[in-house]
# Entry
Amino acid sequence: MHLPIQHVFLKLAAIIQPWAAGLCILCFLFGLPIALLFSPPDYQQGDTVRIMYIHVPAAWMGLFCYGVMAAGSASYLIWRHPVANMVAKASAPIGAMFTALCLLTGMLWGEPMWGTPWVWDARLTSMLVLFFLYLGYMALGDAFDSPEQGDKAAAILALVGSVNLPIIKFSVDWWNSLHQPSIFSMAGVSVDTAMLPPLFLMVGAFQLYYVVVVLMRVRAQVLTAKIRAARLMRAA
Amino acid sequence: MTSLDTVLDMGGYAAFVWPAYALAIVGLGALFILTTRSVKTQQAELDRLRPPRSEPTSGASEAADNTTGSGA
# Structure
Protein backbone atom coordinates (compact mmCIF):
# COMPACT_ATOMS: atom_id res chain seq x y z
CA MET A 1 0.00 0.00 0.00
CA HIS A 2 1.31 3.42 -0.93
CA LEU A 3 -0.99 5.45 1.24
CA PRO A 4 1.18 8.54 1.82
CA ILE A 5 1.38 9.49 -1.87
CA GLN A 6 -2.35 8.93 -2.17
CA HIS A 7 -2.91 11.35 0.68
CA VAL A 8 -0.75 13.99 -0.96
CA PHE A 9 -2.83 13.49 -4.09
CA LEU A 10 -6.11 13.76 -2.19
CA LYS A 11 -4.96 16.94 -0.43
CA LEU A 12 -4.05 18.49 -3.78
CA ALA A 13 -7.34 17.27 -5.21
CA ALA A 14 -9.26 18.96 -2.40
CA ILE A 15 -7.65 22.27 -3.35
CA ILE A 16 -8.07 21.88 -7.12
CA GLN A 17 -11.59 20.45 -7.17
CA PRO A 18 -13.67 23.47 -6.07
CA TRP A 19 -11.82 25.77 -8.48
CA ALA A 20 -12.24 23.35 -11.35
CA ALA A 21 -15.94 22.92 -10.51
CA GLY A 22 -16.52 26.70 -10.34
CA LEU A 23 -14.69 27.35 -13.61
CA CYS A 24 -16.54 24.45 -15.25
CA ILE A 25 -19.90 25.96 -14.30
CA LEU A 26 -18.74 29.35 -15.61
CA CYS A 27 -17.68 27.83 -18.94
CA PHE A 28 -21.09 26.15 -19.29
CA LEU A 29 -22.92 29.34 -18.29
CA PHE A 30 -21.18 31.32 -21.03
CA GLY A 31 -20.62 28.51 -23.52
CA LEU A 32 -24.13 27.06 -23.76
CA PRO A 33 -25.98 30.33 -24.60
CA ILE A 34 -23.32 31.31 -27.14
CA ALA A 35 -23.36 27.83 -28.68
CA LEU A 36 -27.14 27.62 -28.83
CA LEU A 37 -28.23 31.21 -29.43
CA PHE A 38 -25.60 33.81 -30.18
CA SER A 39 -23.19 32.05 -32.54
CA PRO A 40 -24.02 32.25 -36.27
CA PRO A 41 -25.61 29.34 -38.16
CA ASP A 42 -23.37 27.78 -40.80
CA TYR A 43 -23.83 28.94 -44.40
CA GLN A 44 -24.30 25.32 -45.51
CA GLN A 45 -25.29 23.36 -42.42
CA GLY A 46 -27.63 25.93 -40.90
CA ASP A 47 -28.30 25.42 -37.20
CA THR A 48 -27.07 21.81 -37.20
CA VAL A 49 -23.61 23.31 -36.78
CA ARG A 50 -24.53 23.86 -33.13
CA ILE A 51 -24.20 20.10 -32.65
CA MET A 52 -20.48 20.64 -33.33
CA TYR A 53 -20.11 22.46 -29.99
CA ILE A 54 -20.93 19.19 -28.23
CA HIS A 55 -19.58 16.76 -30.79
CA VAL A 56 -16.07 18.16 -31.30
CA PRO A 57 -15.25 18.76 -27.60
CA ALA A 58 -16.64 15.29 -26.79
CA ALA A 59 -14.41 13.77 -29.50
CA TRP A 60 -11.35 15.59 -28.19
CA MET A 61 -12.16 14.47 -24.65
CA GLY A 62 -12.60 10.88 -25.86
CA LEU A 63 -9.04 11.01 -27.20
CA PHE A 64 -7.67 12.99 -24.24
CA CYS A 65 -9.05 10.56 -21.64
CA TYR A 66 -7.56 7.65 -23.56
CA GLY A 67 -4.22 9.47 -23.69
CA VAL A 68 -4.31 9.91 -19.91
CA MET A 69 -5.34 6.28 -19.51
CA ALA A 70 -2.46 5.06 -21.69
CA ALA A 71 0.10 7.32 -19.96
CA GLY A 72 -1.18 6.28 -16.53
CA SER A 73 -1.07 2.62 -17.53
CA ALA A 74 2.49 2.99 -18.83
CA SER A 75 3.76 4.56 -15.61
CA TYR A 76 1.91 1.92 -13.63
CA LEU A 77 3.55 -0.89 -15.61
CA ILE A 78 7.02 0.69 -15.63
CA TRP A 79 7.28 2.40 -12.22
CA ARG A 80 4.42 0.64 -10.39
CA HIS A 81 3.01 4.07 -9.66
CA PRO A 82 -0.27 3.44 -7.78
CA VAL A 83 -1.79 6.88 -8.30
CA ALA A 84 -1.06 6.73 -12.03
CA ASN A 85 -3.05 3.50 -12.22
CA MET A 86 -5.89 5.04 -10.22
CA VAL A 87 -6.02 8.04 -12.57
CA ALA A 88 -6.01 5.66 -15.56
CA LYS A 89 -8.88 3.64 -14.09
CA ALA A 90 -10.79 6.79 -13.15
CA SER A 91 -10.43 8.19 -16.67
CA ALA A 92 -11.93 5.16 -18.43
CA PRO A 93 -15.65 5.67 -17.72
CA ILE A 94 -15.35 9.41 -18.38
CA GLY A 95 -13.66 8.76 -21.70
CA ALA A 96 -16.24 6.13 -22.59
CA MET A 97 -19.05 8.58 -21.83
CA PHE A 98 -17.47 11.32 -23.98
CA THR A 99 -16.80 8.88 -26.83
CA ALA A 100 -20.41 7.66 -26.73
CA LEU A 101 -21.56 11.29 -26.68
CA CYS A 102 -19.35 12.02 -29.68
CA LEU A 103 -20.72 9.03 -31.62
CA LEU A 104 -24.36 9.80 -30.80
CA THR A 105 -24.18 13.53 -31.54
CA GLY A 106 -22.34 12.67 -34.75
CA MET A 107 -25.25 10.46 -35.73
CA LEU A 108 -27.70 13.24 -34.92
CA TRP A 109 -25.74 15.54 -37.23
CA GLY A 110 -25.17 12.92 -39.94
CA GLU A 111 -28.84 12.12 -40.38
CA PRO A 112 -29.85 15.57 -41.72
CA MET A 113 -26.48 16.50 -43.29
CA TRP A 114 -25.20 13.26 -44.83
CA GLY A 115 -28.61 11.64 -45.15
CA THR A 116 -27.44 8.78 -42.94
CA PRO A 117 -26.55 8.59 -39.25
CA TRP A 118 -23.71 6.13 -39.82
CA VAL A 119 -21.18 5.12 -42.45
CA TRP A 120 -18.40 2.60 -41.93
CA ASP A 121 -15.66 5.00 -42.85
CA ALA A 122 -12.26 5.27 -41.19
CA ARG A 123 -13.03 8.10 -38.75
CA LEU A 124 -16.34 6.74 -37.50
CA THR A 125 -15.12 3.16 -37.29
CA SER A 126 -11.91 4.05 -35.42
CA MET A 127 -13.96 6.13 -32.98
CA LEU A 128 -16.29 3.16 -32.40
CA VAL A 129 -13.19 1.01 -31.80
CA LEU A 130 -12.08 3.58 -29.19
CA PHE A 131 -15.42 3.18 -27.41
CA PHE A 132 -14.99 -0.62 -27.35
CA LEU A 133 -11.42 -0.24 -26.09
CA TYR A 134 -12.77 1.71 -23.13
CA LEU A 135 -15.38 -0.98 -22.45
CA GLY A 136 -12.73 -3.69 -22.82
CA TYR A 137 -10.36 -1.89 -20.43
CA MET A 138 -13.06 -1.59 -17.76
CA ALA A 139 -14.26 -5.19 -18.21
CA LEU A 140 -10.74 -6.65 -18.19
CA GLY A 141 -9.82 -4.82 -14.98
CA ASP A 142 -12.72 -6.51 -13.21
CA ALA A 143 -12.28 -9.93 -14.82
CA PHE A 144 -9.57 -11.26 -12.50
CA ASP A 145 -9.80 -12.56 -8.96
CA SER A 146 -6.75 -10.58 -7.96
CA PRO A 147 -7.22 -6.84 -8.53
CA GLU A 148 -3.51 -6.45 -9.26
CA GLN A 149 -3.64 -8.98 -12.11
CA GLY A 150 -6.71 -7.24 -13.50
CA ASP A 151 -5.00 -3.85 -13.33
CA LYS A 152 -1.95 -5.21 -15.16
CA ALA A 153 -3.96 -6.85 -17.93
CA ALA A 154 -6.09 -3.72 -18.38
CA ALA A 155 -2.99 -1.51 -18.45
CA ILE A 156 -1.48 -3.65 -21.21
CA LEU A 157 -4.72 -3.42 -23.20
CA ALA A 158 -4.73 0.37 -22.76
CA LEU A 159 -1.16 0.57 -24.13
CA VAL A 160 -1.85 -1.73 -27.08
CA GLY A 161 -5.05 0.17 -27.85
CA SER A 162 -3.25 3.51 -27.94
CA VAL A 163 -2.24 2.60 -31.53
CA ASN A 164 -5.80 3.65 -32.34
CA LEU A 165 -5.22 7.30 -31.28
CA PRO A 166 -3.13 8.40 -34.29
CA ILE A 167 -5.41 6.34 -36.54
CA ILE A 168 -8.40 8.37 -35.32
CA LYS A 169 -6.55 11.66 -35.57
CA PHE A 170 -5.21 11.16 -39.09
CA SER A 171 -8.04 9.01 -40.48
CA VAL A 172 -9.52 12.01 -42.28
CA ASP A 173 -6.17 12.68 -43.98
CA TRP A 174 -5.07 9.12 -44.71
CA TRP A 175 -8.30 7.87 -46.21
CA ASN A 176 -11.10 9.35 -48.24
CA SER A 177 -13.63 10.09 -45.58
CA LEU A 178 -17.12 11.46 -45.52
CA HIS A 179 -16.13 13.10 -42.25
CA GLN A 180 -15.07 16.75 -42.10
CA PRO A 181 -11.33 17.44 -41.97
CA SER A 182 -9.73 18.67 -38.73
CA ILE A 183 -10.75 22.10 -37.48
CA PHE A 184 -7.11 22.96 -36.85
CA SER A 185 -4.43 21.97 -39.33
CA MET A 186 -1.26 23.36 -40.89
CA ALA A 187 -3.51 25.13 -43.39
CA GLY A 188 -5.17 27.12 -40.61
CA VAL A 189 -8.61 27.08 -39.06
CA SER A 190 -11.35 25.51 -41.17
CA VAL A 191 -14.34 27.06 -39.40
CA ASP A 192 -15.57 30.64 -39.09
CA THR A 193 -13.76 32.46 -36.27
CA ALA A 194 -17.14 33.34 -34.71
CA MET A 195 -17.51 29.63 -33.99
CA LEU A 196 -14.29 29.41 -32.01
CA PRO A 197 -15.39 31.10 -28.72
CA PRO A 198 -18.31 28.70 -28.08
CA LEU A 199 -16.14 25.80 -29.19
CA PHE A 200 -13.35 26.71 -26.76
CA LEU A 201 -15.78 27.41 -23.93
CA MET A 202 -17.34 23.98 -24.36
CA VAL A 203 -13.89 22.37 -24.60
CA GLY A 204 -12.99 24.17 -21.36
CA ALA A 205 -16.21 23.07 -19.69
CA PHE A 206 -15.68 19.42 -20.68
CA GLN A 207 -12.03 19.50 -19.66
CA LEU A 208 -12.83 20.96 -16.24
CA TYR A 209 -15.69 18.48 -15.83
CA TYR A 210 -13.10 15.76 -16.43
CA VAL A 211 -10.84 17.20 -13.72
CA VAL A 212 -13.69 17.30 -11.19
CA VAL A 213 -14.97 13.80 -11.92
CA VAL A 214 -11.58 12.12 -12.26
CA LEU A 215 -10.51 13.48 -8.85
CA MET A 216 -13.72 12.18 -7.29
CA ARG A 217 -13.24 8.78 -8.88
CA VAL A 218 -9.66 8.56 -7.61
CA ARG A 219 -10.98 9.44 -4.17
CA ALA A 220 -13.50 6.59 -4.45
CA GLN A 221 -10.66 4.19 -5.31
CA VAL A 222 -8.60 5.33 -2.33
CA LEU A 223 -11.66 4.75 -0.15
CA THR A 224 -12.07 1.26 -1.65
CA ALA A 225 -8.45 0.47 -0.79
CA LYS A 226 -8.99 1.74 2.76
CA ILE A 227 -12.16 -0.33 3.11
CA ARG A 228 -10.24 -3.41 2.01
CA ALA A 229 -7.48 -2.64 4.53
CA ALA A 230 -10.03 -2.01 7.32
CA ARG A 231 -11.78 -5.32 6.55
CA LEU A 232 -8.46 -7.16 6.68
CA MET A 233 -7.65 -5.50 10.03
CA ARG A 234 -11.02 -6.61 11.35
CA ALA A 235 -10.56 -10.14 10.10
CA ALA A 236 -7.09 -10.38 11.62
CA MET B 1 -32.95 35.35 -33.05
CA THR B 2 -36.29 37.07 -33.06
CA SER B 3 -38.50 35.02 -30.80
CA LEU B 4 -38.59 31.92 -28.67
CA ASP B 5 -40.14 29.96 -31.54
CA THR B 6 -37.23 30.58 -33.90
CA VAL B 7 -34.81 29.55 -31.19
CA LEU B 8 -36.76 26.37 -30.45
CA ASP B 9 -37.14 25.63 -34.15
CA MET B 10 -33.34 25.73 -34.79
CA GLY B 11 -33.87 26.52 -38.45
CA GLY B 12 -35.95 23.37 -38.87
CA TYR B 13 -33.31 21.15 -37.24
CA ALA B 14 -34.79 21.15 -33.73
CA ALA B 15 -35.17 17.34 -33.81
CA PHE B 16 -31.38 17.00 -34.15
CA VAL B 17 -29.88 19.93 -32.26
CA TRP B 18 -31.87 19.71 -29.01
CA PRO B 19 -31.43 15.94 -28.54
CA ALA B 20 -27.65 16.43 -28.97
CA TYR B 21 -27.60 18.91 -26.06
CA ALA B 22 -30.00 16.74 -24.05
CA LEU B 23 -27.68 13.74 -24.50
CA ALA B 24 -24.75 15.83 -23.30
CA ILE B 25 -26.63 16.89 -20.17
CA VAL B 26 -27.84 13.35 -19.46
CA GLY B 27 -24.39 11.81 -20.07
CA LEU B 28 -22.40 14.30 -18.01
CA GLY B 29 -25.09 14.50 -15.33
CA ALA B 30 -25.49 10.74 -14.94
CA LEU B 31 -21.75 10.10 -14.62
CA PHE B 32 -21.42 12.95 -12.13
CA ILE B 33 -24.28 11.63 -9.97
CA LEU B 34 -22.99 8.03 -10.12
CA THR B 35 -19.52 9.21 -9.12
CA THR B 36 -20.77 11.37 -6.22
CA ARG B 37 -22.90 8.47 -5.00
CA SER B 38 -20.04 5.99 -5.13
CA VAL B 39 -17.81 8.34 -3.10
CA LYS B 40 -20.59 8.78 -0.54
CA THR B 41 -21.38 5.07 -0.17
CA GLN B 42 -17.66 4.20 0.07
CA GLN B 43 -17.12 6.88 2.71
CA ALA B 44 -20.15 5.63 4.66
CA GLU B 45 -18.88 2.04 4.46
CA LEU B 46 -15.44 3.11 5.67
CA ASP B 47 -16.95 5.12 8.54
CA ARG B 48 -19.02 2.06 9.48
CA LEU B 49 -15.92 -0.17 9.54
CA ARG B 50 -13.71 2.41 11.18
CA PRO B 51 -15.74 5.02 13.07
CA PRO B 52 -14.14 8.46 12.59
CA ARG B 53 -12.69 10.15 15.65
CA SER B 54 -14.28 13.34 16.96
CA GLU B 55 -14.11 15.79 14.09
CA PRO B 56 -14.72 19.44 14.85
CA THR B 57 -13.73 20.55 11.31
CA SER B 58 -13.40 18.80 7.98
CA GLY B 59 -9.65 19.48 8.00
CA ALA B 60 -9.29 17.66 11.28
CA SER B 61 -11.26 14.71 9.97
CA GLU B 62 -8.88 14.49 7.01
CA ALA B 63 -5.94 14.52 9.43
CA ALA B 64 -7.52 11.79 11.57
CA ASP B 65 -8.15 9.82 8.39
CA ASN B 66 -4.52 10.26 7.46
CA THR B 67 -3.06 8.88 10.64
CA THR B 68 -5.26 5.79 10.69
CA GLY B 69 -4.79 5.37 6.94
CA SER B 70 -1.01 5.24 7.06
CA GLY B 71 -1.18 2.93 10.04
CA ALA B 72 -3.34 0.47 8.10
The interface with chain A takes residues 1, 7, 10-13, 16-17, 19-21, 23-24, 27-28, 30-32, 35-36, 38-39, 42-43, 45-46, 49-50, 62, 66, 69-70, 72 of chain B (CB under 8 Å). The first helix of chain B runs from residue 4 to 9.
